[in-house]
Amino acid sequence: MSVWKRIAAFFKRKDVVFSGKRYFIDAMSAMAQGLFCTLLVGTILNTLGTYCGLGFLQHLFTVKLGHGAGVMVQFTIGDLCSAMVGPGMAVAIGRALNAPPLVLFSLIPVGFATNALGGAGGPLAVFFVAIVAAELGKIVSKETKIDILVTPIVTVLSGVGISALIAAPIGAAANAVGTFIMWATEQHPFIMGVLVSVVIGIALTLPISSAAICAAFGLTGLAGGAAVAGCCAQMVGFAVMSYRENKVGGLVAQGLGTSMLQMGNIVRNPRIWIAPTVASAITGPLATCLFKLEMNGAAVSSGMGTCGLVGPIGVITGWMNDMASGAKATVIAMDWIGLVLIAIVLPAVLTWLLSLPLRKIGWIKQNDLKLDL
Q1: N-terminal to C-terminal alpha carbon distance within the chain
Q2: pLDDT, tens digit, for every residue of 110-130?
Q3: What is the DSSP string of 21-74?
Q4: Which H or E element spans position 75?
Q5: I want to staple 34 with a disulfide (CB 3.0 to 4.6 A). Which of 89, 206, 324, 350 is the partner?
């Protein structure tokens, strides 16, 4: 057997698969789940505690950071959740890559270190570093009689070592891209409103993670508002457009779950994607130009749409944050009208109207949008 065949056989045995699907679909989707369970949940709990008067969510836990005297820091439950965003993402990525237990647990410090070193662009740095560290850990896993030492040491040293070299540059690059997109949206709200809304909306329906993309680039402000518009257009649009095929179950599964459920139908008939995508091209600039809809909550919320109503909740959280900082005096009626129209009403009405001529000319046929629910 040739050297290359032996290497290929070894990688196959170790389940190390160099695949775009595994890294950019499976791992990125898992990363978004890690973000949701830490940063996003923490943000939601803090918002509920602050503005709904829930005392147990406002309770402060005093935690010592560092050895010896250390530094005493106070955290709410939400703060503690948000502090674990790096480990949460890294472990989620490791699980998507089928990492064995010792590798999976060793990714906890790798994720923490990488996110901290990556700064504002930490999530993107965690994505790359966690993949490399997980694969290296898998390669050495159970190859020695002292696996309990070798596997964690290799995983942690490789992960933290690589993060020391590339986390800061990757984080800075991601932050720069996000800053440019947000600046461009401020300068050209109509054009960028269309582009951001359509691109992020499409990413939400594709088997990749729009939430992870928004978090990686830190998309907030007007650009975040456009992203919310695009994601809501896809989710609510598909839910309403396919109601005749999927009834209430489909309405809930897509409207509060994910429009990704339609991906199989899109592959069979790409024309069913036209109506929600055109709707996103309309609601995006309306969000940026007319309603000045901004997402100033957690950036990950920009890419969540109406999944669990996380997108709208993120916008509301941003309002509260802005009022607390003095950047916003109060929430006016136009804010609420804009949010409801952009997130729910317009996606539903526009997609339904746009789908009617498509059905009439036969581009969308009966059961083209049918889901196996």
Answers
A1: 48
A2: 999 999 999 878 898 999 999
A3: HIIIIIHHHHHHHHHIIIIIHHHHHHHHHHHS--HHHHPPEEEEESSTT-EEEE
A4: strand 71-75
A5: 89
The token pair at 143 is: 């190859």
For residue 6 the two structure tokens come to 């032996």
Q: Is the pTM higher than 0.85?
A: no
Residue 212 — very low, low, confident or very high, per pLDDT cuts 50/70/90? confident
The two three-digit tokens of residue 343, written as one number: 């997130």
Close Cβ partners of 52 (under 8 Å, ≥ 6 residues apart): none
Nearest to 214 by CA among 124, 116, 87: 124
Average pLDDT value over all residues in the chain: 92
d(CA 224, CA 152): 38
Taking Cα atoms as reference points, which of 287, 345, 320, 371 lies closest to residue 49?
320
On the 0-12 / 13-18 / 19+ scale of CB atoms within 10 A, 20 is: exposed
> Do residues 303 and 214 touch, judged by C-beta distance below 8 A?
yes
Residue 210, classified by CB atoms within 10 Å of its CB into exposed (0-12), middle (13-18) or buried (19+), is buried
Q: How far is CA 91 from the centre of its chain?
A: 15
pLDDT attached to residue 340 = 97
Question: pLDDT at position 1, please?
Answer: 63
Q: Which amino acid is at 346?
A: L
d(CA 273, CA 206): 11
